[in-house]
Amino acid sequence: MMNSLKIGNVEIPGNAILAPMAGITDATFRGICGSMGCELTYTEMVSAKGMSYNNKNTAPLLETHPSERFRSIQLFGSEPDILAAMAKKFDDSPFDMIDINMGCPAAKIVKNGDGSALMKEPDKIGRIVEAVSKASKKPITVKIRKGFDELNKNAVEVAKIAESAGASAIAVHGRFRAQFYSGVADWDIIREVKDAVKIPVIGNGDVVDLDSYLKILEHTNCDGVMIGRAAQGNPWIFKEISQYLKTGVKPAPVTIDERFETALLHTREIIKSKGEFIGVREMRKHICWYVKGLKGNAEVRKEMVKLSSFEEVERLIAGYREYLERSHDVL
User: Which domain range does residue 267 map to?
Assistant: First the structure.
């Protein structure tokens, strides 16, 4: 069985999606997830206002990787005319669709009235989606939360407004902005949104493995599943889902060799994209995630912050691999 997903005029053969994550989902990481079977990847969120001012920090966020299958660029902002003008710039780009961030809980984003702050202004959401939908040739999607806080649980209302204004799909994170990423995601609200609209609904929150992927589909009847933090250091989550849907058999757990080979591939690719100085420093957090759960990983994490070259990364991983082989018990 394969769970396909159609967003506007874009037909995607699978429905496991990499969530946009600031500082994480650069082109290199998206490419690795794509090679593992992730069907749709989202960029880190890009400031529409920053784009309009030709901010030099914006260009790297727009890079793509050939291993990505289907791509979405995620814009953030709260001014309909600016968002519409910037969205139009992607009419002839390699991106298949445009997403508008209405769920980011970060204080600096919310303070400016962007991200999840928009959940407090449903009418503005309607104006934004209508303006962007009219300006762009690409399908427009939105990513929202359950609401801003417990007094404002309005995901269903917002979803209906976005649909009426021209959105082609809606991703729902089952937490309030006030929760950030704490507590348990409310999958019931995702089901309520699914029951309320006719466009595809993508469920997001607490999907950490194949079992929870299957459970959220069953619980919410959502059309797609967005995976975020669980993919950090674990891009194989998409391979597990893809292989299971094709064969009906749960794949064997990833091996230690696969972990380390992917970590080194990731390091080489990010250096190719960003140079050794920046690339190795950005890999520090990724390698800490790749070794999560392995015996003696605290020492590796401590050493990672000192590394500044590919050779040093390679040497550290080789030494750690030897340590695990000697100890046999890797967990």
Answer: 256-327
